[in-house]
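Transport permease protein
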Amino acid sequence: MTLDRTAPARPAGPALDAPAAPRRVTPAQWASQSLTMAWRSLVQIKHNPSELLDLSIQPIMFVLLFTFVFGGAIYGSADAYLQFALGGLIAQNALFLTIYTATGLATDLQKGTFDRFRSLPIARSAPLSGRIMGDVVRQLWSLVVLLVVGVVLGFRITTSPVAVLAAFGLLVAFTLAFSWTSVLLGVLARDPEKVQIYGFTVLFPLTFASNAFAPTETMPGWLQAWVAINPVTRMADALRGLLVGGPVAANAVATLLWGVAFAAVFGPLAVWALRTRV
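C-alpha cells:
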C-alpha cells in the first residue's frame, strides 16, 4: 500500500494568507488608546529624570536671566520688566518645548517603535496623537513653573481666574497647532541629534524677532513690520492681556488664526511624510 503524500486541498474562499484589514476603532477607543500612548510618553520621564530637570530648570533660568540682566536696561527696573516680559517668556518656552515632540518622534522612528505599533490592534494615529498629548502635559508643567517663579520674583496677576484659565487654553491651542511643524521635522530628520539643530534654527529667529522681550517701538523700522505680525508677538500680547490686563480679543484671534494656518499647512505634510516613511 502506498501513502498519498500530496497536500490536502485548501478550502475554497478568501486566501488564508491575505493580510487582515485595518481595524476600525470607535472615537472612544481612539481616545483611550491615545491616552495610553500619552502615558507611555510621560512614564519615560521616570527613566530619564534629566528631562524633568530640563522642563523645570530651563524656564527658571530664562526668567532669572532676562529679568535681572535685561530688566534694568530695557524697562528701568526688574519688577516692571517682569510684568512685561513674563508673557513673552511663556510664549517662547512653549515653542521651545515643541522640540520634544520632534525629538521623541525621531527617536521612535529610528528605533522602529512605530513599526511595532503598526502590528498592534490600535488606531494608526494613536501613537502620534499620544505623543502630542504627552507634550501638552509637559507644556502645562513648564507654564506652572514659570508662573510660580514669576510670582516669587514679584510678578502680579491683575486679572481674574477665568482670564488665567483662558491664557492656559490659548497657549495649549496654539502649541498643539504649532506642534505639526515639529512632527514634520521629527519625521524628516533621520537622526534625533539633528532635530535640535534644525529646530532652533527656526525657533530662535521666530521668538527673538518679536516683542516677547523688548517693546516693538525700540526696534528698527524695517524689523517692526515683521514683529507686528509675528505669531509670537500676537501670542505674547494676548497672554499679557489675560494675565496683567490690556487688549486681548484681536491678539487672541490673530494667535488662533496663525495656529490654524500652521496646522493647515504642516499637518497634511507631516501625515504624508510619516506615512511615506513608515
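Residues 1-22 have pLDDT under 50 and may be disordered.
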